[in-house]
Every structure is written in C-alpha cells, then in structure tokens.
Fold this protein.
Amino acid sequence: MIALSRLSLCAALLFSLVTAAAAQSAPNLPSATIPADRLAKYSDDAVQWMRDYLRIDTSNPPGHELAAAQFFKKVLDSENIENQVFEFTPGRANIWARIKGGGTKRPLILLSHMDVVTSDPAKWKANPFSADVIDGAMYGRGAQDMKQEGLAQLVVMVMLKREQVRLDRDVILLATSDEEVDGIGTDWMIANKRDLLENAEFLITEGGDNLEQKGHVESVGVDVAEKSPFWLKLTAHGTPGHASVPLADSAPNRLVRALYRVINYQTELKVLPVVEEHFKALAATQTSDLAAKFADIRTALEDKAFYARMSADPQYAYLLRDTISLTRMQGSQQTNVIPSEAVANLDIRLLPGEDAHAFLVLMKNVVDDANVTIEPESKDFRKANASDVNTTLFQIFREVSAAYWPGTPVVPTITSGYTENQRYREIGINCYGFTPYAATKEEGATEHGNNERVRLEELRSAPRILFDVVATLGQR
Ligand SMILES: [Zn+2]
C-alpha cells in the first residue's frame, strides 16, 4: 500500500509534466479545458479502479464475469450513469451503460471484454490477481488484454458525465463475457438486446497497438479488418495392409503427395483498400528502398522481383493473401500397419470478402485426387470484413494521435487473428481496434503470457487520450 502511494505520487508528478506538454501541443482537444486538479483526480481514480478490477478473477474458463460487471455497476451507479447488468447464465453477465446525447448523430459504442485467459501463477513475479506494483507497473492477468482498455472506457464515461460534455450522439459502454472462448456474451447481446446497441455508427474495442521504443511511440496501429479462419480436414483413403509389403497408393502416400501440392501452391497476392492504406502509412517508417514501394504498393507489386520478395516475407504476405498452414497429420497407430485412412488439417485464413466455398473448390483442384476428401472442420464460416478508413472517427484518431504523439504515423492494420469486431461489423457498425495505451514490445508480449502488466504512467494518461477521441466525436 505504502509503496503504491509513493509510486502514485511520482507518477502524478510525471503525469502532470506529460499532460502539460500534451495540452500545450493540443490546445484544441476537449480535455485542455479541464483543470489540472480534476485531471489528476481522474488519473488517481484510474489507478485505484484498475487495482480493484484486476483483483477480480475472471479467468475463462469458467469466466465468472458477473463480479466484474458488479464492479462496473458500482462505479456507474455512484456517478448516476444509466446502466443495466444482464446475467444471461448463472455467474456470467454483460454490462451496458449509456450517456445520452442530443440524438442528431448515431451512437458510439465502447466495447471491452471482462474475461481473461488462464494463467500459471508459478511463472509470475506477482500473483496474477494481486495487482501488485513492481518497478512502476501493475501486474495482473488482463493488464494488456483487455482490462486496461475497459477501465479507460469506464473512466471516459465518468469524465463525460462529471464534465457535462455536450454530445450530439449517445455514448454506450458495453463490457461482455466470454470473448476469449466462444464469445457467448456478444452473441447473447446481439441476439437479445440489439435495441440497446441502437443504430450505432461506430465502435471502439481492442486490437489497436501503439508500439513504444526507447520512450517514443513509433506507430499508432488501428485495427480496421481481420481475416477469417476456414479450417480444412483432408482425409486420404487407400488399401490397408502389412507394412512389410509396401503399397504405392496407400492412404499415407496419397496424403503426402496431396500435401506436397498444397504446400507448394501459392495463393495470389491481392491488395485490398485497407491494406493499401496500411502500406501507405507504413511508408513513413521505412528508411530503406521500401518507403517508395510501400507508398504505392499496388504499382510496386507489378514488378515480379518485388512481388516475389513480398510473397516470401511472412510479416507482409499474410496481409496480401489467403494463407494456408499445414498443422496436423495423422496416419497409423502402429509403425507396421498401413492404415486405410490418413488425415491432415490445414489452418486457412481468408481475407475480408473471400468466399469460403470458392476456396474449397480451389483446394480440391490443387489436391487433384478423388481419393482425398476435403471438408471444413466447422459448419459455420463467418466471412471476414473490414471498416472504412475514410470516416469521421478514423480522422479523429489521426488528430488526437498527432497531438499526443506528434509525427507518429497512424497505421490501419488487418489483424491475422479474429476479433468480435467481425460480429458488430455485420450489423452495420464501423468497428475499430484502437487503444489509448502505449506499450513496449516486451510489455505487449505479456498478453496471454506471464507477468502481464501495465505501467502506472500509462494507466494515468490513457483515459485522457480516449476521452479526447470520444468527446471530439461527440461533437462532430
Ligand atoms: Zn482481448
């Protein structure tokens, strides 16, 4: 306790220096009109509430997010902010809250998930639910994914209310259960309480990534699209027998030949509009010959050598193509038995807009063997989607970023993974992964790993950045 309050004091001093600089460079942002003592109080609240939030164990499975929803509710009730808790199954709940605006614009939703992945305390410096502070950072499962973002969203709701910010649109806070496993919290909300999401125009959630190196934020990554998993199972069929008498067209042999064709098959590189914007923004960070090429990736890829270079670079290639990863193979249970079946699994990720059925037909053509059947592992395929970068909110991300991190490019990104944005985009909302927190590579890597933590300095400053985004959007 004592150690924390001392640290808080240091952080408060540091924060006032940081925010003074930010306010100077950004006199037009809404937070610049809030007196310093009130800003410091919001920062204190952020640290205090984050400690309370991290101490609630919402490891999923089993989740038990109701306790976290009650934590949100307590703060919201004490600020007289309209809210409702939905315990859709015992112990598991979503919380929804709203600050009403003038209604001339469609709402903004601030979305977070309250569940966290499991952890192995033996591998941590501090207990994952202690919220202990070590060397200026608060430790806890969820400190990067994504209790820190949910907390900043909660503080922003409180700021909007206490500061009586004029809003032309409603601001809705939604904290859900089960994102880390099946996403039943979001599914339940969309199926049963769609009216409470109103006809929202924008949604902000996790997925953004502001990389800090040597105290400088190098890039502000905003998630605007994702790829969609389309996993396939290949089963080769053949005559079984004793392995002492080899059979040329046995199931394992057929499978290996089919997989050889698959792994040598190159899907075509395609430039989606969001990916074009991604490379354009990234061009500013390149010092090599890549800068000019990234500035116009579409033209650059017409050059065969450059196409081959991009195709061979896993960091860039996944943005430009549907990907295929061979991950599992299974044949006989015994070395001396030729099995009648051999199986392999492919983890395929499709770009936004791609048709799963067409890709299945393509794979059948590549495999080109009637004795190798190919079927999707799951029946429900969710088409990947993307949100436009030419929107008011994306423009505001650029303006606010320019104020806090001058000269740092705002880079729209397409995540290799899958987020809940996919489901909210389907109902007509422009969804972005944006975070007001900066993290070093090392800190970011603690997400789903050991020693997950967030710096107190970030906890104190992030809510204000998000407030500036939300309050600006509220009046535009
Ligand atoms: Zn997450």
Notes: The chain has a mean pLDDT of 93. The pocket of zinc ion is lined by residues 113, 145-146, 179, 206 (CB under 6 Å). The CA atoms of residues 26 and 164 lie 21 Å apart.
